[in-house]
Write a structure and sequence with these properties.
Length: about 220
């Protein structure tokens, strides 16, 4: 009996390839610099954004070491309005989409691993869509902070979880609101003791924010 689903490790089936470095804030690809590559993060973090129909930029997700991005290259349609940029100094390993396809023919378990990754991202997206449907902005922000703390956080001795210094603009693009509203709620969360934030990072009291989320009324705006 297993304690959870068995996941294939794509890294076990991939050969070493070209490594590229990007400075914090540097664009890795966008509609002006399309890419046919699949990327694996070796070090650092990458932010993926898209331009919506309204012209506003939306954060699709943020990826960290041992995670892939750029999978739209498999469809051979380019990234269209997608942009990948380094959230901090970052190193990535790259493969051409055609090379990955050839490897999958030889290593079917690699295909399974990539499929599992795609399904997991679909599940995560569905949870996010559900939150957009039923949660107000404050609750969406709280859920996003908790998700980021689980993905990127480091537990401190005092019980706080240390995270990246996400800008209010980035959080707003992820939550789907304005920077001003995010600033309002971040200040309120700080006053209520759920978090501390500065240019050096965010310290989140995850248990406290989860309790707030459980008790928050749906009509909070």
């Amino acid at each position: 009996m297993t304690n959870g689903p068995i996941r294939e490790d794509a890294l076990a089936y991939l050969p070493c390839s070209t490594i590229a470095s990007f400075r914090k804030g540097q664009v890795i690809y966008d509609h002006n610099q399309p890419s046919g590559l699949i990327y694996l993060i070796i070090d650092g973090k990458v932010k993926i954004t898209r331009i919506g129909d309204t012209g506003h930029r939306v954060v699709v997700d943020i990826y960290q070491p041992d995670e892939f991005f750029g999978e739209a290259a498999f469809l051979n349609i380019g990234q269209r309005n997608e942009q990948a940029s380094a959230l901090e100094d970052t190193k990535v390993m790259t493969w051409a989409a055609s090379e990955i396809e050839q490897l999958v023919m030889k290593q079917p378990r690699l295909g399974v691993a990539l499929l599992q990754m795609a399904v997991q991202r679909t599940v995560d997206s569905l949870h996010r869509i559900e939150s957009f449907s039923v949660d107000n902005i404050a609750r969406r922000l709280a859920r996003s902070l908790l998700r980021f703390s689980e993905r990127f956080g480091v537990l401190e001795e005092d019980g706080f979880v240390r995270m990246l210094p996400f800008t209010h603009e980035t959080l707003a693009q992820y939550v789907g609101t304005s920077r001003e509203i995010v600033t309002h709620w971040m200040a309120r969360f700080q006053r209520e003791g759920h978090l501390k934030y500065s240019r050096s990072g965010i310290l989140l009291q995850a248990s406290s924010l989860r309790k707030w989320l459980d008790n928050a009324k749906a009509d909070v705006v």
